[in-house]
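Consider the following assembly input.
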Amino acid sequence: MIDRREVIRMARLARLELSEMEIDQYQKDLTSFLTSGKKLQQVDVSRVEGTSHAVSVAHELRKDEVGKSLPQEAVLLGGPQVQDGFFRVPRIVEAQE
Amino acid sequence: MTSYDTVIGLEIHVALLTQSKFLCSCSASFGAPPNSQCCPICLGLPGALPLINEKAVEYATKAGLALNCQINHFSRFDRKNYFYPDLPKAYQITQDAFPLCTKGFLEYYVDDRLVQTEITRIHLEEEAGKLIHSGASIVDSEYSLVDYNRAGIPLIEIVTAPDIHHPRQARLFLEQLRLLMSYIGVSDTKMEEGSLRCDANISLKPNGSSVLGTKVEIKNLNSFRALERALEYEEMRQSQVLYRGGTIRQESRTWDDRAGKTMSMRSKGDAPDYRIFPEPDVPPLYLDPVWVELIRATIPELPLERLRRLEGQYGLSRYEATFLVNYPDFGELFFALVSQHFGYKSIVNFLMGDYARLAREKGHLNPKRIAGLLKIVDEGVISQTQGKGVLDDLFSSDLSAREIVEEKGLEVVGDPGRLRPIAREVLAANRELVSRFQNGETKLFGFFVGQVMRVTQGKADPGVVNELLRDELGK
Ligand SMILES: [Zn+2]
């Protein structure tokens, strides 16, 4: 069983608010994911090259040309607080000598 | 008592001068209304599919080649996850494990010593948005405003090895790097607009020790001067802590330019955990070595090469050559004028003198018009002093130097036949002074010269005037 505190930390990193019941549930679910993962780790891959993408595709590049952007009103639609065309966000860091 | 060595490493972000953003086609231009250059891709809306801008890859490669790096055939993009208001997607697409360029170096002068700083890596990534803080700095702001126009502009991050030894060296390195980037034309490198930014890592270690001390990262360095001052401050602060027997805390500090000190930044969240993984939406880059060579062929003469050429081929002093290298517009002008066969030194003296002041106010003159002026001064048609007046007129009119001279009747009068009667007139009008001169008041000679120059409105050749007056007074 993975540590309950580990579940809480992961939730915080993903900015998720979990109820006590959800924490219990994720603790079980994540443990079973990790158990499956452990099984995969037993496979000998020492002779297989590492991969980062499921399909091997060569990169496709785009020409450096300017296209259309969204109108400002549409961009700002997603912001809980806006001011003079900007998104407005609360205090970011606290100072200390 | 132990003495300490300073160890500095820099991380420089250079915004690439592309028309469109890195992974979408929004404009990358500066100064548009806030949040007017954004789209589903750079805002990270679900379902958007990024595509790499080929110009960004080209510019990053060019920067790597100019910094003597190895350009990797294979490089890969990664997703760096974190929450910060300037990052709309809550992750940045960057290159972590497999950067585009590795193992390079930059050579530059520290006083008269040529030094090398190792470049560990250069990678491509996305720019974040711009924050405008409500207070004087981030630490005393109750809220901040965010503009995502810059979010997604292509950046390169250049990381040096920790092999810079003092704050001034760090500044000289950064100045040389800026110059290099502007020579290869991949960035406009304006620190004040944020297209060139620098974070610095600094630690102290006991003299001679091979073990590095705990490093502190300094952010918010908005000018070359800020970089040097912040490092000097931090060097002093850390050495005081160590001399008192304290320990340095590994942390990020922000530079407060007005207060002249660094301050610890404590984030509200946990210690960073970026959970970096291969970026699923952007496939890896495989660069064709032939293509890399084509890019290499587009690299122009670089600052240090140009400095050596100006010193070696043209015999300029370090001071003169540095001026022409640091102001490439003046350098280009120098080469344009040199091709018209003037003395190298006289061109440099001209460019560094009054011309520099006027050109900075009003923009450069066409080299042809400058050559016209240098020619008539060279030929003695007008004097050096008159040349300065003509230079002013070149900046305010479209006439050539020769036309200005003709229009104003500025030609030097060097004809003794024309000047002798004037000299005689002057002496005749000042009989009393002439006799005082002949009785030994030799300093009056200058007065007679001045009178002739006044009558001729400064157009007389002073050498000829001297000779004539001496002759007339000797009679
Ligand atoms: Zn976009």
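Residues 4-36 of chain A form one domain. Ask yourself how this observation constrains the way the partners meet.
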